[in-house]
Amino acid sequence: MALRGSRLGRIALPTLLYRRHAEQLSATKVWQKELVHAVETAQAHQELSQRLLGFSEAGTYAALTGPAAEPEEVRAAINLIKAVRMAANSFPFRDRLAMRAMALTAMHRIRGIYGTDL
User: Fold this and answer.
1) Domain span at residue 76?
2) pLDDT, tens digit (0-9, with 9 covering 90-100), for 23-34
């Protein structure tokens, strides 16, 4: 939707509940493995990164979705996370805090998967 020009945003109040459990599809290894190889999703991620942040390094999606990324893809993902943190400075205060928290969570996840010496 964002690639077609629709505006996406957050609202302060939750409008639905999200249930997590051990048997959910997105928790399975099969789904996670397929997500890593989702070419269309990776392309949309790359295009949005370029359009919204001017970020054009390839491979970020592989590092953000699974443990099998190459070192250059991990570095690209770290650079994207840094770009998101910088872009957050122009957001309204509430959104800025949410984006910074999301960036820290993503960085923590990357370090957990690929090592703490990044």
Assistant:
1) 2-114
2) 777 777 777 777
